[in-house]
Amino acid sequence: MHNGGTRLPLEGVRVLELGNYIAGPTAGRLLADFGAEVIKVERPGRGDELRNWRLYAGDVSMLFRTINRNKKSVVIDLKSERGRELVLELVGHCDVVIENFRPGTLESWGLGPDELEAANPAVVLARISAFGQTGPLAERPGFAAVAEAMGGLRQLVGEADRPPSRVGVSIGDSIAGLYTAFGVLVSLLQREKDGGQAGPLSGRVVDVALHEAVFSMMESLVPDYTAYGVERQRVGGRMEGIAPSNAYPCADGSSVVIAGNGDSIFQRYMVAIGRPDLAEDPALRTNAGRWERRDELDGAIGAWTRCLPRAEVLRVLDEAGVPAGPIYTAADICADEQYRSRRMIQHLPVDVGAGTPAEVGFPGIVPVLGETSLPVRQVGPDLGEHTREVLGDVLGHGEQDIDKLIGEMEQRA
């Protein structure tokens, strides 16, 4: 697939995805977005469980359609001997294998690193799990919710006088997927720098633990603790130690986020809201002083925003050079010209259970290469949509053999 006549960066790279849910498929999606041929292996009958998550109508959720876009779906029973043989056959034609099963699962199916390396000595293996492939917790199962808790994130999300909350999306899985895709690219680059010469597979295993991926996003959480004994706490919409930066209600019932915590920005900010006295207060010239008086500052800012509609609040702050933005709903995002100008919402025809396909908006591809998002080539595929194509074109199986294999898998469904 081309974009404006230019080859996509990962064209020619073939990835075998042996994963369910969000983390592994997110890594596969990122690689597919930029041109890799990603072959997603799904179990007979049910496929990836994500197909039914947040399913409001139709047969396949928009969550699955989003996270598995630009991929091919092949149905193979990994637990069967014939399925094992097919997977190893596919590995011989792939550059990368991604899996996010509980450690030891692939090994129990005869698809562990030794078998994969025998099938393809140059393959890159990316493994995502709750706690990594080594260590005392390696064999323990866990989803992103647990990883977010043990990675330090949950302790900081929510109001100080309430239990920890979550952010509303499976952020731990998505972060792990990002790190996995990055690790895959690093390994492929190293392999290329080595002239395609492959050493032991152990040097090309990308081992991503969900809780470590979350922990890596926690900035100076541990350094602050080990250096100063500081245990950061939940502060709601604020960021600890930084002020004023918060969300504020407006007169029309909407809200805005205003980040006026820079020293020079703060002075312009206070003048804009009619509080030059705060702008001139010497005790508020540094962030430390503003943090000490954060409640007073938030009170002054909130008193101003509550008297104006959101559009007027944003206009005044924009003219003053104060970073601010609306808190968007899905409807707001769909109507926003900035998203539209960079093709960050792309409409594709999808079966939504209404009899005829509907034009559904999907997130564009990030990062932008050039001026606008690359095109989303297709939404997440139907279950087994590409089984016949992959078995024939990639593995070279004949029609009779493919018919037999598909029939056997349908019996197991």
TrEMBL record:
<dbReference type="InterPro" id="IPR044855">
    <property type="entry name" value="CoA-Trfase_III_dom3_sf"/>
</dbReference>
<protein>
    <submittedName>
        <fullName>Formyl-CoA transferase</fullName>
    </submittedName>
</protein>
<keyword id="KW-0808">Transferase</keyword>
<dbReference type="InterPro" id="IPR003673">
    <property type="entry name" value="CoA-Trfase_fam_III"/>
</dbReference>
<dbReference type="Pfam" id="PF02515">
    <property type="entry name" value="CoA_transf_3"/>
</dbReference>
<dbReference type="GO" id="GO:0008410">
    <property type="term" value="F:CoA-transferase activity"/>
</dbReference>
<dbReference type="InterPro" id="IPR023606">
    <property type="entry name" value="CoA-Trfase_III_dom_1_sf"/>
</dbReference>
<dbReference type="InterPro" id="IPR050483">
    <property type="entry name" value="CoA-transferase_III_domain"/>
</dbReference>
